[in-house]
Amino acid sequence: MFNKSSRQETQEAESPEVMPGISDTDQQETCRPGESATAESVSSSDFTALQEKYQQLQDQFTRLAADFDNYRKRTRDEQESLVKYGAQKSIMELLPVLDNLERATGSLKEDSDPKLLYKSFSMMHRQLMDGLDNIGVKKIPAVGQVFDPLLHEAVSQTASAEFPEDNIIHEVQSGYQLHDKVIRPAMVIVSTGAPEAAGPEVAKPAAAAEEPIQKPVNPFAQS
Question: What is the pLDDT of residues 41-68, one digit of tens each?
Fold first, then answer.
């Protein structure tokens, strides 16, 4: 038979050495070969991927900033050009009227036929109105229309047997609108309706009404 004390010594010699303060499980995990190197490799790979993603986003941001700066400059230049040259289309529509006016001024004289003058200016007026119509400028209808405070400006009112109440009887100054915006209201005179009837006729005395009207005697008349 073995001695009890010798058996305990043999078991202690065969069991692995346990470090103080560390459990068996922690000790087994610590002793796994190659595990620390693998963790460092994974961490390094993730860092490289994040760094590449950051660089990609940084490049995108730089390009967007440059594109926005170019867009802002282009928009500013377009606005300045619009303010400076926005009236070009309108001027091109009115230049033919100016050409005809210059030709008429060069050909007409003080003793020119009034009918020719009237015809020339009527033609230029019609051409001018056509040019304004092409750029969206239209004359506001006035005479015979019902007064509209959004389109007309009343300068006075007067009675009229021809025009009913609140109708325009005369246009003092023409009004115009650009597309659907009134740029100058028409200055007009508005009717207040038919004039009031005259008062009752004063009755004459009956005797005076029956007397015949005596005509003056002509002394040069032959008897």
Answer: 657 788 888 888 888 899 899 999 999 9
Asked, for residue 159, whether it belongs to a domain, the answer is: yes
**Partners of 168 in the β-ladder:** 190
- Domain CATH for 176: 2.30.22.10
d(CA 211, CA 207): 6
Tell me the Cα Rg of the chain: 54
The residue segments making up the domain with residue 176 are 138-193
pTM over 0.70: no
How many domains is the chain built from? 1
Amino acid at 183: I
pLDDT, mean of residues 65-86: 88
Q: Residue 5 half-sphere exposure, CB side, CA atoms within 13 Å?
A: 0
Q: Which residues contact 140 (CB under 8 A, 6 or more apart)?
A: 151, 152, 174, 175, 176, 177, 182, 185, 186
Where b means 16+ CB within 10 Å and e means fewer, 210-219 reads eeeeeeeeee
